[in-house]
Specification:
With 139 residues, the protein is α+β, with helices and mostly antiparallel strands. The chain has 2 domains: 1-31, no CATH class; 35-134, Pantoate--beta-alanine Ligase, Chain: A,domain 2, CATH 3.30.1300. Helix content is 59%, strand content 19%. The protein is built from 4 helices and 3 strands. The chain has helices at 8-18, 20-30, 35-83, 90-100, and strands spanning 104-111, 114-123, 126-134. A hairpin with a 2-residue loop joins strand 2 (114-123) and strand 3. Helix 1 (8-18) runs antiparallel to helix 2 (20-30). The longest helix is centred in the middle third of the chain and has 49 residues, at 35-83. The protein is rod-shaped, with a radius of gyration of 34 Å. The N and C termini lie far apart (99 Å).
């Protein structure tokens, strides 16, 4: 007895019962060629989506670090001016240093020789914020 390919006997039985339309439908259901391509495409889309999400998270972390570095340097430069080591106005100097480091200075407070600043960096419509304080020890 000759063996028939998968789905052929079922297709023949349906063809006898329901006509040529059922036979064509059974052939489409039994044929799984191309399903690997669909699976590979789905896996590629999942990888791209996960990588895109990872890039957003890493970018947000980088924006936070950039804001923190700008705040630290702005506070240090403001404290240098407040202590008399550098000429100028403390908060103006801090603002210039923050801008030079890619951040905006949101707040700047001076209490004697102690400077407290808050710097912000924009990222995807949000703002990464960091604060820093600089001055003499115990100040």
């Amino acid at each position: 007895m000759r063996r028939m390919p998968f789905g052929t006997a079922r297709g023949a039985a349906l063809g006898r019962a329901f006509g040529p339309v059922a036979t064509a439908g059974a052939a489409l259901v039994a044929d799984d060629r191309g399903s690997g391509s669909v699976l590979a495409l789905a896996a590629a889309c999942a990888i791209v989506a996960i990588a895109g999400g990872g890039m957003v998270v890493v970018g947000a972390g980088a924006a936070q670090v950039r804001a923190a570095v700008a705040a630290d340097l702005a506070a240090l430069s403001g404290a240098d001016v407040a202590s008399g080591r550098a000429p100028g106005v403390p908060c103006d100097e801090a603002r210039g240093i923050a801008l030079a480091n890619g951040a905006a200075l949101a707040t700047c407070h001076q209490e004697g020789t102690v400077i407290t600043v808050t710097a912000t960096t924009p990222y995807l419509g949000f703002e990464a914020t960091a604060s820093a304080r600089a001055g003499p020890p115990g100040g």
